[in-house]
Design brief:
single chain; about 120 residues; alpha/beta; Histidine-containing Protein, Chain: A; 2 domains; four-stranded mixed sheet; 4 helices; 4 strands; about 55% helix; elongated; Lipoprotein_DolP; signal
Amino acid sequence: MNFTRDGRMFAMAMLFAASLQAHAQGGEAPASAPLGEAASADAAPTPSKAADRALRRRVLNALAKAKGLRASGISVRATHGAVTLEGWVPEQAQIDQATRVAQGVTGVNSVKNTLTLSTF
């Protein structure tokens, strides 16, 4: 009975080891890279994430500077130039204005506006 259980555990351990090896070979870091290099590459943000964050900040700044727009209820998501506006504004005209302002920011390819009206 112990032999059967030990055999199953050995088979599972071998399967796990093979899975880890296959994952390591298929990953972004080359198999010959030292562990420290691969770990530091994962810790640094990718250029596209940094660009998305910078675009998000530019859109938020533009919205905050727009006259007649209450931007405190607006949140922005940016992914590869596609911007999504979420949250609320007190007037319908501000929904349209927020879209126009976001479209005018350099780097914005498209704007999806999901803003809603609220009097809070």
